[in-house]
Amino acid sequence: MALSKSMHARNRYKDKPPDFAYLASKYPDFQQHVQINLNGRVSLNFKDPEAVRALTCTLLREDFGLSIDIPLERLIPTVPLRLNYIHWVEDLIGHQDSDRSTLRRGIDIGTGASCIYPLLGTTLNGWYFLATEVDDMCFNYAKKNVEQNNLSDLIKVVKVPQKTLLMDALKEESEIIYDFCMCNPPFFANQLEAKGVNSRNPRRPPPSSVNTGGITEIMAEGGELEFVKRIIHDSLQLQKRLRWYSCMLGKKCSLAPLKEELRIQGEESPQLCREVPKVTYTEFCQGRTMRWALAWSFYDDVTVPVSRDLPLASLNSSTWWVLVGHK
Q1: How far from 243 is each of 97, 269, 288, CA to CA, in Å?
Q2: What residues are designated binding site?
Q3: Domain membership flag for residue 8
Q4: Broadest EC class (predicted)?
């Protein structure tokens, strides 16, 4: 089975991948980056950052009516992957079953220059977003992208100090209960890891796409593991200020220690004194790219989506896995 078949069921690209030939015929900015072989097959060089940027901007324009600008010096998101995460958040908060007139509120931690999660979530579902950013260039581009799509009423982009995650960002909004937070954390701990030195399985094929991104987007002290642990620590202070906390992960091996961190910190927390009530996980598949996501909630009454695509038989038996209905 092709990996695309494992995309989220509602992902528009699951059964209908982008038609490069059609997009090239309609958008001159995209056409200059496509290649046509002797058999007439149209392809794109995913190792060319300008080509990747052109594809992202073209898909957002064609399929979602969004116009954005992204600097080559910052992270260029892929639309199918980000859409998978949005759809999973829909599952977490029960968006498909809820009254659409109810305003859902989310937080995007480190929104990036594209501001893609808030733009997609607002365009598809009418969600309200608080989008935080520490990098000056990313903040300026994100704010511009929101404004040029006339979504300033639903997306608030805020510049926050370095290392600010949730606690400081919510100081001025003490009365608001958010439905969820999202985060695409920096995956790497240092330059060597970012380049794949000593961190990549030698049997694994090399990346099929270029790796772009500023320092704050791709690297953090301790990598994604320590970054998400800080979000966990913030969540134990905030608890029911958000109904769901979630993070995307670049490494499957990060899941087990993060779930163990939730267990330990929950039991040691004076406010909680027990395991975090609800924890779930999922796997995002798109092309040759695999990502994982972890979500947790301090509400006993939330419905936990079925954890998908991670065969339990393949997991280390010592790993702490909380499944649907665990209290």
Answers
A1: 16, 18, 32
A2: 82, 110, 133, 184
A3: no
A4: transferase
The maximal CA–CA distance of the chain, rounded, in angstroms, is 67
Nearest C-alpha neighbor of 115 from the set 162, 66, 163: 66
The two three-digit tokens of residue 145, written as one number: 């992208």
The CATH number of the domain where 94 resides is what?
A: 3.40.50.150
pLDDT mean over 115-134: 97
Residue 180 lies in a domain: yes
For 167-177, what is each residue's pLDDT tens digit? 888 887 778 99
Binding residues for S-adenosyl-L-methionine, by number, are: 82, 110, 133, 184
**Domain count along the chain:** 1
Tell me, yes or no, whether 272 lies in a domain. no
Q: How far apart are CA 162 and CA 65, in angstroms?
A: 33
The residues, any chain, with a CB within 8 Å of residue 260's CB and separated by 6 or more, are 319, 320
**231 and 199 in contact (C-beta within 8 Å)?**
no
* Residue range of the domain that includes 221: 42-259
Q: What sign for the dihedral angle of Cα 246, 120, 301, 177? A: positive
pLDDT score at 316: 37
Model confidence pLDDT, tens digit, residues 58-70: 999 999 999 999 9
Does residue 21 sit within a domain? no
What are the φ and ψ backbone dihedral angles of 248, each rounded to 5 degrees?
Answer: -90, 145
Question: Residue 310: how many CB atoms within 10 A of its CB?
Answer: 14
